[in-house]
Design brief:
With 224 residues, the protein is of the alpha/beta class. 45% of the residues lie in helices and 16% in strands. It has one domain: Rossmann fold (3-Layer(aba) Sandwich). Helix 1 packs across helix 6.
């Protein structure tokens, strides 16, 4: 049997029970990766296992640093170090202008950023040591074109965007020939899930030095 592009790579998908998470898990698995999918809902993780056979699932609150540290220890013991981290934890909240940017919405959005901070801090050493370490997140065009009604959302996405570019700078110093951190940028992910999965797989084909720190737009394919 011929080797597939990601044979031997262990990739962690955070926020894997979303539509985009399922598409990314399926694409990575088809390319040969050992996919470990993380979520918080047991029923959604079971549905993912049924939909994408071969995926290993983990129930973990990624906003809890101790829980992420325990997850890493479990992975290291049972599967090995991580070669890729695809962070898809998030969601949209907005509306109401600046005065309407609620604390409840901010807490929801900030939780997604905390999961990014926790997972990248815990798995940074794995990605640096890997012969092909990759980190990817999905950001938004709102970072460059923020609105009053989506100020919370734009601010949270901007923080995540900056964090990943900071990780990229660390990769540039510690593993310039092997590691890359990228940001996929969308207006909305609806309808782009398969494209996202394909682009994530292609990260392992690209030269790390050229990929690292880049922001890659994903747009609907024109049929005209």
């Amino acid at each position: 049997m011929s080797r597939r592009p990601l044979d031997g790579r262990l990739v962690l998908v955070a926020g894997a029970t979303s539509t985009s998470g399922e598409a990314v898990a399926r694409a990575l698995s088809a390319a040969g990766a050992s996919v470990h999918a993380v979520g918080t809902r047991a029923d959604a993780l079971e549905a993912l296992r049924d939909s994408v056979p071969g995926v290993t699932t983990h129930r973990c609150d990624l906003a809890d640093l101790d829980a992420v540290t325990a997850l890493a220890a479990e992975l290291h013991e049972t599967a090995g170090p991580v070669d890729g981290l695809v962070h898809l934890v998030g969601g949209w909240r907005g509306g109401g202008g600046i005065a309407g940017q609620s604390d409840e919405d901010w807490e929801f959005l900030d939780r997604g950023f905390r999961t990014l901070r926790n997972t990248t801090r815990v798995f940074d050493a794995d990605l640096v040591a890997s012969p092909a370490g990759r980190l990817a997140i999905v950001s938004s065009t709102a970072v460059d074109s923020p609105t009053a009604g989506a100020a919370n959302y734009a601010a949270a996405k901007a923080a995540a965007d900056a964090w990943v570019r900071s990780v990229a700078q660390g990769f540039r110093k510690q593993a310039p020939q092997t590691a890359a951190a990228v940001v996929f940028v969308v207006r909305t992910l609806a309808g782009l899930e398969q494209q996202l999965g394909d682009q994530v797989v292609r990260l392992w084909d690209g030269a790390p030095g050229a990929l690292n720190g880049t922001r890659i737009p994903l747009e609907p394919v024109s049929l005209g």
